[in-house]
């Protein structure tokens, strides 16, 4: 599946953004979808994931209570709603697709979109 992320931008601390990722090619609903992020000088890290039909989700501790992942398989799209953003959330955000549930490992996600930059000012 090919993935295209969008929705990044500059926002003040406390603000919100919604990222989108559109998939094309092989059936989007066959994949667990995830979001990762990579801050300057840091390793890419897991943010959130959602199951094939959207019934289950899990989050990294950094985003619990502030981030919400969802998907619309009819639109081949996964979303990441980010609220109460903090300067520490500044990063390139990547969507990714996996065939297995329950993993946060980069190597388990076989398809990646390009990053979309989120910058949170203090």
Could you give a quick summary of the protein structure above?
The protein is mainly β. The protein contains no helices and 11 strands.
Give a description of the structure.
There is one protein chain. With 122 residues, this protein is mainly β. The protein contains no helices and eleven strands. The chain has strands spanning 2-6, 9-12, 17-24, 32-38, 45-50, 57-59, 67-72, 77-82, 91-98, 109-112, 116-121. Strands 2, 4, 5, 6, 9, 10 and 11 form a seven-stranded mixed beta sheet that branches. The chain has a four-stranded antiparallel beta sheet with strand order 1-3-8-7, with no helix packed on it. β4 and β5 form a beta hairpin. The termini are far apart. 33% of the residues are buried. The model has no long low-confidence stretch (mean pLDDT 96).
Q: What labels would you give this structure?
A:
122 residues, mainly beta, 7-stranded mixed β-sheet, 4-stranded antiparallel β-sheet, 11 strands, globular
Helix content: under 10%
User: What about the largest sheet?
Assistant: 7 strands, mixed
Mean pLDDT: 96
Number of strands: 11
Question: Can you tell me the overall shape?
Answer: globular
The count of helical stretches stands at 0
Q: Hey, roughly how much beta strand do the residues contain?
A: over 45%
Distance separating the two termini? 37 Å
The radius of gyration computed from the alpha-carbon positions, rounded to a whole number of angstroms, is 13 Å
Compressed to H and E, one letter per element, the order equals EEEEEEEEEEE
**Class computed from helices, strands and strand pairing:** mainly beta
Low-confidence stretches at least 5 residues in length (pLDDT < 50)? Answer: none
């Amino acid at each position: 599946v090919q993935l295209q992320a969008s929705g990044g931008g500059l926002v003040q601390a406390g603000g919100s953004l919604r990222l989108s990722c559109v998939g094309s090619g092989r059936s989007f609903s066959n994949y667990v979808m995830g979001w990762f992020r990579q801050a300057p000088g840091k390793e890419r890290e897991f943010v959130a994931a959602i199951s094939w039909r959207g019934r289950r989700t899990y989050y990294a501790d950094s985003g619990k209570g502030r981030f919400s992942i969802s998907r619309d398989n009819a639109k081949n799209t996964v979303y990441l709603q980010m609220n109460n953003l903090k300067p520490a959330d500044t990063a390139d955000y990547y969507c990714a697709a996996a065939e297995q549930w329950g993993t946060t490992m980069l190597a388990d996600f076989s398809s990646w979109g390009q990053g979309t930059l989120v910058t949170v000012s203090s």
